[in-house]
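Run DNA repair photolyase through structure prediction, thanks.
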Amino acid sequence: MEKESYIKGRGAQANVKNRFHEMSHEMRNDFLEYCRLEGEEADPDKTQYLKVFPKTIVNKVESPDVGMGYSMNPYQGCEHGCIYCYARNSHEYWGYSAGLDFERQILVKENAPQLLEDKIRSKRWKAHPIVLSGNTDCYQPAEKHFQITRKCLKVFLKYRHPVGIITKNAMVIRDLDVLKALAKDNLVVVNVSVTSLSEETRRVLEPRTASIKKRLETVRILSEHGIPVNVMIAPIIPAINSHEILPLARAAAENGAVSIAHTIVRLNGAIGEIFSEWIRKAMPDRAEKVLRQIEDCHGGNLNDSRYGLRMTGEGKIAQQIHSLFQVAGKKYFADTSYPHLNTSLHESFKDGQLKLF
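Sure, done. The structure for DNA repair photolyase is below.
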């Protein structure tokens, strides 16, 4: 493909077919020529925010190898545009493509704070950590305007309920006041995703995310204020960031992280097609090498759906990656660990204030 055809500032380079739709859209050459002659843009590449009103917001996570019991997502779709993102497939359930639509059609759940409050005030609800961003980043660009995540954090604080956060955006620092209040009672942990120390790699992998410098600075600031931080070095993509494992672990430790975690990339569903098209445009010189090494981690396929193996991989390359993380853990995190959040306070604050009797 011609280099100039690359869509800068986006991860996906096209809209792939939605598996639930019989028909699909195609950008034909005659239409493109018509737009050129008329002086019109064939695709303005604008992000749209669409308000939706779900009936529930807290999701029970049934997958046994995810590492969380409950999650919630204030937004569906994510403007960060990470090319490897597993959440892309979920956009198809809403009637959109897992490709460019995932990055440009952002569904906004403005009633999320009220739904959350209703859920954790329920008599049947027993406190269990709820993770913000189990699917899409709760601090993506939309949050700057809508502030749904901040409102949800205030709900967690009001009811003294434990919460986890996963993000790759420095915007989390905006809510330092609420996070510090939660941390006083061991009610919060922040997972910051850092996938590379190279800005060049970051720009093509995750085009609208915070810079690496900003993310490491975020880890440091949170840590300095007593908020435990786990750094997600994920996903590891062979021949793209697999050589950075030890330097990334060292940078995480030096900035105050208490632990690191990782997964090996899996290109399930539509993501295999999206990633393959992207890498042949963004990294044509090593595209086939990367794709073959990913397949080597998943039994000859770009994806493995088996629980316990789908995110850890198998084979020699996967084993080398895991061995490096074992070395990193012993070298940089021998004296620290991921915190267990406090679930004992919530029942006493079920009505929003401490019960004395």
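The domain at 43-266 is CATH 3.20.20.70 (TIM Barrel).
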